[in-house]
Write a structure and sequence with these properties.
Elements (H helix, E strand, L loop, with lengths): L16 H18 L7 E8 L5 H11 L5 E6 L10 E7 L3 H5 L3
Parallel strand pairs: 1-2
Antiparallel strand pairs: 1-3
Helix pairs in contact: 1-2
Length: 104
């Protein structure tokens, strides 16, 4: 799944970066659940932040959601496509056919 921002269900962005990162993680977890997956199925994470000072908060939130160590890429970029966003992530998961069947 890609292009996962930290927007709330109503489309607003939390003011606090850590809360934005938590909301993004919640969004990813919900999408994974709907696909018959869970955070332990994540095999790769790619994330982009717009401020180097947000790295520690990002890592803390990510470690709270993903307890294993998937392949990881983190980059600090000047701006995302939506200038109001401060972070964006993309995750790749591997789900076995039998695990996905329980959600059909």
């Amino acid at each position: 799944m890609s292009g996962t921002p930290g927007l709330r269900p109503d489309g607003t962005r939390p003011e606090d970066f850590a809360e934005e990162a938590r909301q993004a993680s919640d969004n990813v977890c919900e999408a994974l659940r709907c696909a018959g997956a869970e955070p332990s199925d994540i095999v790769q994470v790619r994330s982009w932040l717009t401020a180097r000072g947000d790295i520690d908060a990002y890592v803390k939130v990510r470690k709270g959601v993903i307890s294993h160590r998937p392949a990881n890429m983190l980059a600090v970029v000047p701006q995302l496509i939506r200038p109001s966003l401060r972070r964006e992530s993309e995750v790749t998961t591997v789900v076995t056919h039998s695990a996905a069947e329980q959600y059909e």
